[in-house]
Amino acid sequence: MEGVWNWRRPLRGREIGEFEDLLREIQPYVPHKLVKDKEWWWLGRDDNFTYQNLKWIIEEMLGEGVTVRETSWLKLVPKKVGVFMWRVKLGRIPCRVVLDRLGIYLNSILRPRCGEEIESIEHALVKWDEVFRLLKEVIKWWNLPADLINSTEDIFSLEDSSVSDSSITGVQSATMWAILYFIWSHRNQIVFKEAKRSITNLFLDLQRRCFEWISKKCRGLSLDWSCWLTIPELAATGVS
Fold first, then answer.
1. Exposed / middle / buried, residue 199 (Cβ in 10 Å: 0-12, 13-18, 19+)
2. 34 partner at 20 to 30 Å CA-CA among 44, 73, 77, 201?
3. What are the phi and psi torsion angles at 81 (to 5°)?
4. Which tens digit of pLDDT belongs to each residue from 141-193?
């Protein structure tokens, strides 16, 4: 059986055991010349892979404490941002407190390059002084109440905003999701590359990236750049 497999290199380590497991799985099956091959996902409810099916399976594995809301997606941002925010909601981004809880050895659980406060998820994404100044800039840009955001949960709660136009609420949420993604990326640049950017540059990059993402997702809508920079809630009207 080994001779029919055309490997680019010899198997080693646990690959050998995985290959043996694969052989045991496929050994009972005999291909039929008259039946076409097709993709089949045995975890699916109708044998087809869908993100919705995968979402249900993940929620079932995580238990009753996880709701659909916690694994919801915003289509106005890239999937990488949605995945990041899902991990934030579940408390699973690798800040120092989380890594320490997982048993990963660290020389300190204090914030990198600063060492003044413990780096929890809330501290890394919201309560860090530099980050909080950036959040304030976004709040002022959107003309929102000054005390609106004091935690990551406040950002998720924007989806339940009392704004009557759901398109505006969606774009607000997309902007806030994006800012947490940018903050975490900025943190990693500081930790791993010792590269630091000014709050002004981060804010301008956030405005530009959100504009590009929303314009790409809503191709039938022509966002006005000048309006987006000054009155984003007006620019967001009609986004779906």
1. middle
2. 44
3. -70, -40
4. 998 888 888 888 888 877 655 444 566 778 888 888 999 999 999 889 888 88
